[in-house]
Write a structure and sequence with these properties.
The complex is a heterodimer of chains A (123) and B (182). Chain A has 123 residues and is mostly helical. Helices cover 46% and strands 11% of the residues of chain A. Chain B starts with 11 loop residues before the first helix and ends with a strand.
């Protein structure tokens, strides 16, 4: 998504990116980034929290207007949870050799599925 | 107190409540699984920037997403679904904002332990943008949105998909875009 944002900006269309992976977006570099320190997949707020979702959209639009320079990141003020325990879990590596083997096997299956889709006629 | 107790096995982001370093995590994970070609995330020294050409309340705004249209033939795409490559899409698409579409997260790297994906509004802000447009905050929310696939190839994304999205934006005379990563 950052690559698309960059391409639009380079061709005269202002953008704002809403996301949760700060390192990935900033490593790529975008004009405007609204960062929420939430688990990946919640760029627009917590599920069923309409007020928070409304605030995030409003902040994204504010950022579209207010940014003066590229690489402008605004961090939203909301917390996912009272503590940071959720940050332990993503791609956690405390796996047994059997769990690693199963994860590898499952991912190989998914890779093959995607490869097939990409090679299918019309893909 | 917002961090957690420090134990030797806890990642530093949980201990100090830092943003998660997804590049490090995913790299270590796939190396541990035995893959020897770790993904190289896109990196750029310079960043293009375009200012709004007119006030937002007179601008035509498009919504751009990486979420996938629900495909009843593609298996589990519901809340807490495991990674399902069959539900991924491979080409840029566009759909009307009315009726509201049924989009799901088919991305490999979202947080399947803590993200339920039970509420589309947590990853696709169409309803909130419609409210905002109705209140006059943006001039016009364009009546179709664009979907961008998340595939591994940066070249494909830049040369094909980003170019296609730019073409759609020009066709629709879009003046600003809200992009949402899922």
């Amino acid at each position: 998504m950052s690559l698309v944002s960059r391409h639009l900006e380079a061709n005269g269309i202002p953008t704002v990116v809403m996301g949760c992976a700060r390192d990935i977006v900033e490593h790529c570099g975008v004009a405007r980034f609204l960062f929420s320190d939430f688990p990946l997949g919640n760029s627009c707020g917590k599920p069923n929290d309409v007020e928070m979702q409304r605030s995030l959209v409003s902040m994204a639009l504010d950022l579209l207007e207010s940014a003066q320079f590229p690489r402008t990141t605004v961090t939203t003020p909301f917390r996912w949870a009272a503590d940071a325990a959720w940050k332990r879990d993503f791609y956690k590596l405390d796996l047994t050799p059997e769990q690693i083997a199963r994860a590898r096997e499952e991912f190989d299956v998914q890779k093959a599925v995607l490869k097939g889709k990409l090679q299918a006629p019309g893909a | 107190m917002t961090a957690i107790a420090d134990t030797s096995s806890d990642p530093i982001e949980a201990v100090l409540d830092l943003p998660v370093r997804y590049i490090d995590r995913s790299r270590a994970y796939y190396m541990a699984l035995g893959y020897d070609n770790p993904y190289r995330w896109a990196h750029n020294d310079s960043v293009p920037f375009t200012a709004l050409s007119k006030p937002l309340n007179r601008s035509r705004v498009a919504l751009i997403t990486t979420a996938a249209p629900f495909n009843p033939e593609a298996g589990n795409q519901g809340a807490w679904a495991p990674y399902n490559a069959n539900a991924k899409f491979t080409e840029v698409y566009t759909m009307p904002v009315e009726p509201a579409p049924d989009l799901r997260i088919s991305h490999l790297g979202y947080d399947r332990k803590h993200t339920s994906a039970e509420d589309i509004n947590s990853y696709f802000p169409l309803a909130r943008l419609k409210e905002t447009a109705a209140a006059g905050r943006v001039g016009e929310l364009w009546p179709r949105f664009y979907g961008v696939p998340t595939l591994r190839s940066q070249r494909l994304t830049t040369e094909a998909h980003a170019a296609r999205v730019l073409g759609l934006c020009r066709e629709d005379r879009i003046e600003a875009a809200v992009l949402v990563a899922t």
